[in-house]
Specification:
326 residues, alpha+beta, Chemotaxis protein chec, Surface presentation of antigens (SPOA), 2 domains, six-stranded antiparallel β-sheet, four-stranded antiparallel β-sheet, 9 helices, 26% strand, elongated
Length: 326
């Protein structure tokens, strides 16, 4: 016959079980606190390493700074652009993230075999258009496609984006970005299969208290020929001393083409208005300088050299004899 436990025996048994399980629960909780689980999608693996993503961020962070300066000049207003994110997603996911209607440019990347997409958020488009037509940067609340005139204005901004992108990539590879298409419906932009991996780089552009998004989409298959150059070794090698010497030489060459105004001053004097009005032919005005004194040479209005006047063949000239020290 089975023995029936009393209430005291049941309580004692439960207390024994609780005391035995408590250390195990504490150990499990302590172990979980140091455990980090990262989800991995085997259908869509990350094809770009963290190091390469970091270098892409550096390239496009520089691009954002230069583009902001260029657009500030065009719009005559302060334009602030900063990098928001660099993500790896599928092409179909990128298309679903775009607004409809949109302003999406298909851009060919020469000499790479492929194209990328550059999308201007509608808010950003109307903000820029309003400013270019003399407004204060007012955002339109309506969702509509751009007119022909408005599109020509956006193309002007896009050309500046293409130019600055080429400059930003120049340390890695000489690339030229050229527009080959424009679409207002993102579903019609099919440059690669929907399941292919793309690198999406998002920027936030602020102007006159308003903001909008600028997005660049690089298909992985397009960047594949240059993706290995985005490693840390290649990135550091792009900024070695030999390249810096080339930059210095190029800057020196550019400075040599800068024009400056050079003026030679034979002498100076001070006249009152009355004396000036009373001047007539054969009057002599003294300039307080001897005939053998050096005259002053000014470069862009700043006195730099001392010289003596003379002739070189049939031309009047001056010979530099020293530097101006006063």
């Amino acid at each position: 016959m089975a023995k029936i436990l009393s209430q005291d025996e049941i309580d004692a048994l439960l207390n024994t079980v609780s005391a035995t399980d408590e250390p195990e629960e504490q150990f499990t909780e302590s172990e979980d606190s140091f455990r980090s689980i990262v989800a991995y999608d085997f259908k869509h693996p990350n094809r770009v390493s963290k190091d390469q993503i970091r270098n892409l961020e550096n390239i496009h962070d520089n691009f954002a700074g230069h583009l902001g300066s260029s657009l500030s000049t065009i719009t005559r207003a302060m334009v602030d652009i900063h990098l928001v994110s660099v993500d790896q997603i599928t092409y179909s996911e990128f298309l679903m993230s775009l607004a409809n209607p949109s302003s999406t440019f298909t851009v060919d990347i020469d000499p790479l075999q492929g194209a990328c997409l550059i999308d201007f958020n509608p808010t950003l488009c109307f903000l820029f258009i309003d400013r270019m037509f003399g407004g204060v940067g007012k955002i339109l609340e309506t969702d509509r496609e751009l007119t022909g005139i408005e599109k020509s204005v956006i193309v002007k901004m896009a050309n500046k984006v293409f130019e600055e992108l080429g400059s930003a990539w120049s340390h890695i590879e000489s690339l030229e970005f050229k527009q080959v298409g424009f679409e207002t419906n993102p579903q019609f932009v099919q440059i690669i299969p929907p399941g292919e991996t793309v690198i999406v780089i998002s920027f936030q552009m602020k102007m006159l208290g308003s903001s909008g998004l600028l997005t660049i989409c690089y298909p992985y298959v397009t960047l594949e020929p240059v993706i290995d150059k985005l490693t840390a070794q290649q990135w550091s090698g792009a900024n070695d001393s030999s390249e810096m010497d080339d930059v210095r030489h190029q800057m020196a060459q550019n400075l040599q083409d800068v024009s400056m105004e050079m003026a030679a001053t034979l002498g100076e004097t001070t006249l009152t208005v009355r004396e000036f009005l009373q001047l007539k032919v054969n009057d002599v005005v003294t300039i307080g300088r001897k005939t053998n004194d050096a005259m002053e040479i000014a470069i862009n209005g700043r006195k730099k050299f001392l010289a003596k006047p003379g002739l070189r063949g049939k031309h009047r000239g001056c010979e530099i004899v020293g530097t101006y020290t006063k």
